[in-house]
Amino acid sequence: MTGVQGAWKRYKTRIKKKHFEPYLGNIENMLANRPLEILEVQFRKLIAYWSIPAVKAMCVVNSENRKKQKWRHKMGPINFANVRVDLDKLTYFQEARETPTDAFQKVFGKENPGRVRCFERTVTKISLKKNKEINEIKKQSEDKVASLKTEVHDYKQRVEGLEDLVRLLLQQNSPDMNIDEALSLLHPNNHLQIVHKIQI
């Protein structure tokens, strides 16, 4: 029910911003640009209501108050005094060495079917479990990629070490040889090109 109320409030706000405020002082334009899903008779009543001075003043006050808010109240009909009492109870049970789960359930009650407490309305136990599994798979993939990068780095260092060793041996045993050309044979791409030329 709370979700329906919120949706209805947002719908009215959208209608007012799009079809009332841009045409202030001109009822004909308001009616000409009214939403097609609202009957003209109903929209006239809505225009009359929004045009009442007391309603206008109330809207201005509410708008200014919303701008001053640092934190939005999202507890619905539950006021913060009751929340404070529940938090005090929760602290009491935790100090009495209750497990966090047991203490939470004693204060707030058990979970309602199909809902996950402390998450938004669209989150369910199934979607939460699915997101957890996806995050685990992502973490495993990232760990695997990091491991492969480390292995590649190690292999590169080994190959560079071998090249230095071969260069040193060639310099000692064959001073007249083109060492860079000889070392190029160690690279797989060059080796495949030479094999291909021989086969041709």
Keywords:
9 helices, 200 residues, mainly alpha, elongated, 2 domains, disordered C terminus, 0% strand, coiled coil
Can you give a write-up of this model?
This protein is mainly α and 200 residues long. The N and C termini lie far apart (79 Å). The protein has 9 helices and no strands. 72% of the residues lie in helices and 0% in strands. Helix 5 (80-95) runs antiparallel to helix 6 (100-108). It has helices at 2-19, 27-32, 40-50, 53-68, 80-95, 100-108, 125-173, 179-184, 188-199. The protein folds into 2 domains: 2-68; 125-199, no CATH class. The longest helix has 49 residues, at 125-173. Keywords: Coiled coil. Residues 131-172 form a coiled coil.
Summarize the helix and strand pattern as letters: HHHHHHHHH
Radius of gyration from the CA trace?
Answer: 36 Å
User: How helix-rich are the residues, as a percent range?
Assistant: over 70%
Low-pLDDT residue intervals, each spanning 5 or more residues: 191-200
User: N-to-C terminal Cα separation, in Å?
Assistant: 79 Å
- Report the average pLDDT across residues: 79
Keywords: Coiled coil
